[in-house]
Amino acid sequence: MELLAFLFDLIIHVDQHLKDFVANYGAWVYAVLFLIIFVETGVVVMPFLPGDSLLFVVGALCGVGSMDLTLSLALMFTAAVAGNQSNYTIGKIVGPKVFQWENSRWFNKQAFLKAHDFYERYGGVTLVIGRFMPFLRTFAPFVAGVAQMTRRRFTFFDVTGGALWVGSVTLMGYWFGNVPWVQHNLEKIIWAMILIPGLVILVGAIRARRKQADTPAADPAA
């Protein structure tokens, strides 16, 4: 419970935690950034780390000169691409047997199934769309590996999605993160970054399941 409370506080108040870390440890913040982004995108049991809000806050800190924008973008892009490659490899190794895994504290089967439904509906584009959606961001490369997508095709979507995600969200923070209204409503903005994409995933998964249920089963005798 203490770990969950810490993670919740980290996600909602990532701006303050990051500011404190920069003040206390300086350049070590870049190593921490790389680690968080890599783990969130590269380890299928860690979908709850602060991705979007972290990028936005990093951009805001770069905007006031506390961090270097070019270095931050390069490190986070590299971590996002490398993390997805790791996650894809894990999915490719475990293969279809993942559907037999039970829900546990280390594996969220419902999130996996939602990501799988999303992938079945949208294919490789899921890897680009998923970059902007918590949980889907973690499970999409894993699902692509389970589905045996070729490495070459996966890498194209991985690099494209990583560049769009890291670039757009970080630069939004750089340009708008220090606007007084944004600073005053940052917690609400972070909640919106979490809840709105989550609702999109849920609606997409429900529609995919309904469509699958409405499709007549093939006659085995045919």
Task: Describe the model.
- By secondary structure, the protein is an all-alpha fold.
- It has one domain.
- The protein is built from eleven helices and no strands.
- It has helices at residues 2-12, 14-25, 28-42, 52-63, 69-94, 109-122, 125-129, 136-146, 151-176, 180-184, 186-214.
- Helix 5 packs antiparallel against helix 9.
- The longest helix is centred in the last third of the chain and has 29 residues, at 186-214.
- Residues 218-222 have low confidence and may be disordered.
- This is DedA family protein.
- Keywords: Cell membrane, Membrane, Transmembrane, Transmembrane helix.
- It comes from Ideonella lacteola.
The major β-sheet equals: none
Separate helix tally: 11
Mean pLDDT comes to 79
Fraction of residues in H or I helices: over 70%
Number of strands: 0
Number of domains: 1
InterPro entries: DedA, DedA-like, VTT_dom
Protein name: DedA family protein
Transmembrane segments: 27-49, 56-82, 122-144, 156-177, 189-206
Main location: membrane
Name a few traits of the molecule.
222 residues, mainly alpha, globular, disordered C terminus, transmembrane helix, transmembrane, DedA family protein
In short:
InterPro entries: DedA (IPR058127), DedA-like (IPR032818), VTT_dom (IPR032816). The protein has 222 residues and is an all-alpha fold.
Give the helices and strands, then pairings.
Layout: H1 2-12, H2 14-25, H3 28-42, H4 52-63, H5 69-94, H6 109-122, H7 125-129, H8 136-146, H9 151-176, H10 180-184, H11 186-214
Helix pairs in contact: 2-4, 3-5, 4-9, 5-8, 5-9, 6-8, 6-11
Family: Belongs to the DedA family.
Membrane topology: Multi-pass membrane protein
Protein name: DedA family protein
